[in-house]
Design a protein that fits this description.
Helices cover about 50% and strands about 5% of the residues. By secondary structure, it is α+β, with helices and mostly antiparallel strands. It has 2 domains: about 80 residues, Glutaredoxin (3-Layer(aba) Sandwich), CATH 3.40.30.10; about 120 residues, Glutathione S-transferase Yfyf (Class Pi), Chain A, domain 2 (Up-down Bundle). Strands 2-1-3-4 form a 4-stranded mixed β-sheet, with helices on one face. The two termini are about 30 Å apart. Bound molecules: glutathione. Its EC number is 2.5.1.18.
Length: about 230
């Protein structure tokens, strides 16, 4: 059987999310790299896979998916059992499952909107988007850092009670934090995490996972204007 295919550049956060869960479950996959500087994701061939002309696209035989979080859940449901990983909490009780669902929503609805503007302002707009190059907008960064501190305070209180967000086992909710936090840690604001020791220790535990390291090695940590990543 041919392996599943992921279409996109591996340094991009939403592509990295999909690769991360494939690596976690040890599934065989083919990465079909797209040159985003050349706009390959906007070509008709890719738009057939992802009608929003975004990366990633994903194909498993006749099944075509887009939206990285949905793709990641499909991967976990398809391969998680064989890998002995229940990251969605679906083989536990409904209470455990509800905790995974809740913290997954927290990542998408609270954490991501707080952290992503900093990453956009400091990295994505100046260094990654072709023709970007603008200096970070200070007021956007400052407002986002304030919002992020609020979220991290809630995480700190939670992580005083359990090793991971949804409980004492790692889950989908924790691992979804990897792509944007990885890039945030390359910005001058990484030290914000030092104010939250439990959160910092949790982050270090996530980063120590072999699957995380395999995916993050395709994500640059030093940015230069005009570089082709
Ligand atoms: N919600 C979507 C977002 C997809 C997305 O915005 N992908 C970015 C890369 S991380 C992209 O393709 N950007 C290129 C563009 O917008 O032209 C997902 O999670 O898959």
């Amino acid at each position: 059987m041919s392996p599943v295919k992921v279409f996109g550049h591996p340094m991009l956060t939403n592509v990295a999310r999909v690769l991360l869960f494939l690596e976690e479950v040890g599934a065989e996959y083919e990465l079909v790299p797209l040159d985003f500087v050349a706009g390959e994701h906007k070509r008709p061939q890719h738009v057939q896979l992802n009608p929003f002309a975004k990366m990633p696209g994903f194909q498993d035989g006749d099944l075509v998916l887009f939206e990285s979080r949905a793709i990641a859940k499909y991967i976990l449901r398809k391969y998680g059992g064989t890998a002995g990983l229940d990251l969605l909490g679906e083989n536990s009780g409904i209470e455990e499952l509800a905790m995974v669902d809740m913290w997954t929503e927290v990542e998408a609805q609270q954490y991501y909107p707080a952290i992503s503007p900093v990453v956009f302002e400091c990295i994505i707009i100046p260094f990654i988007i072709p023709g970007g190059g603008a200096a970070p907008n200070r007021s956007v960064v400052d407002e986002s850092l304030e919002r992020l501190r609020g979220v991290l305070g809630i995480y700190e209180a939670r992580l005083e009670k359990s090793s991971y967000l949804a409980g004492d086992s790692i889950s989908f909710a924790d691992l979804n934090h990897i792509p944007f936090t990885f890039y945030f840690m390359t910005t001058p604001y990484a030290k914000v995490f030092d104010e939250y020791p439990k959160v910092k220790a949790w982050w270090e535990m996530l980063m120590a996972r072999p699957a995380v390291q395999r995916v993050c090695k395709h994500m640059p940590t030093k940015f230069k204007l005009g570089a082709q990543y």
